[in-house]
Amino acid sequence: MSHISRLAIYDWVVPAVDDRILKYAIIGSGMMGLEHIRNLIEIPNTQIVGVCDPHTPSLEQARRALNRVEGVRYFTDFRDLLTNTLADVVVIATPNNTHVEIATEVMRAGKHLLIEKPLCTSVTDCQTLISLQTSHGLANQVVWVGLEYRYMAPTARVLLEIEKGTIGSVKMISIREHQYPFLEKVNDWNRFNINTGGTLVEKCCHFFDLMCLIAKSRPVSVMASGSQDVNHLDEKYDGNIPDILDNAYVIVNFENGVRGLLDLCMFAEASKNEQEISIVGDKGKIEAMISESVVRVGKRKDGYGSYQEVPIEIDQNIVKGYHHGASYTEHMQFQSAVRDGREADVGLQDGLWSVAIGQAAHISIDEMRLVHVSEVML
Ligand SMILES: NC(=O)c1ccc[n+]([C@@H]2O[C@H](COP(=O)([O-])OP(=O)(O)OC[C@H]3O[C@@H](n4cnc5c(N)ncnc54)[C@H](O)[C@@H]3O)[C@@H](O)[C@H]2O)c1
User: What's the rounded Cα separation, in Å, for the pair 150 and 240?
Assistant: First the structure.
């Protein structure tokens, strides 16, 4: 399991640009693929050589975004792209249920890989990729999971303060995401659990990853309550009503005693902050208000009610697309791992744990019981 070891990763410092050119291929050029393209265009010594998407409007939007870039080839089948481009790096930004098949081929082709979250829709599929990485001697490949909330500026500041010991030994991690309903996606893939892995895998893997990173421990059990109460109930696709839950509470117990709580609501767009993170240690408390870009730090030794509010500046030069600049920083860190030949900061194992907690939470909701994470780790 990864842990907070390299402070620089969480410090809001983008690594120096390296002059070796990295060639990229993008598989899936919908919303997230386009965000990657927009960021990569801005990063020096980075060249996009291929894009693949079977959906014509998605491929066309990539063409428009790349109209000033020479030498890009376009494909509708990812295998053709892998055979016909000399990419060093592949970015997978396709629907969740396609990840395992495409990642398998990309890894076998020997490319470095940045794969969007969630790694896969199930623990079993995540384990398939981990076995491939370990059994095929693919250790020199960087395989990085796009759990980019680690790189949002306020989150990065929180991680840094925790690592510095500002709040002492972490005991409780509470994350609230109160947001708008799921957006429309190509062929409506995100309306059904079978394609996404379920909301607590698809959406909440980000937050379970943060919990694991902050707790520095393995999740052991999960209790959850949730349902689909408001959203998408009047929609039908081929006669089927979406089955994705839109609100939940999830409690996660970690091996070292740290407790995590996720409060998810996807019909709460009338909110100041989309995400609020609160972490309490034995010496104090730190909070991040992501939309406000504010971090509050309170130290118990300073007395009742005392806290300091720190506005977090986001460098506008690096904010390309959504996610408060996190995608850009993620790419810079990914590139430094590729160029320096080091391990991914967010590897397959991190992807696995974040999916495992989500999967366990869904079972907990369905069966109304506490679920041991070992039950889903086959
Ligand atoms: N990092 C984040 O915060 C974040 C945010 C949104 C989405 N995502 C993830 O990004 C991925 C894509 O989501 P999206 O929002 O861009 O969806 P989208 O529907 O906008 O785009 C997906 C694209 O993949 C294409 N596609 C489907 N099968 C393909 C295949 N076999 N080969 C090539 N292309 C294929 C589709 O035609 C579509 O254009 C998902 O895994 C999603 O969970 C991550």
Answer: 36
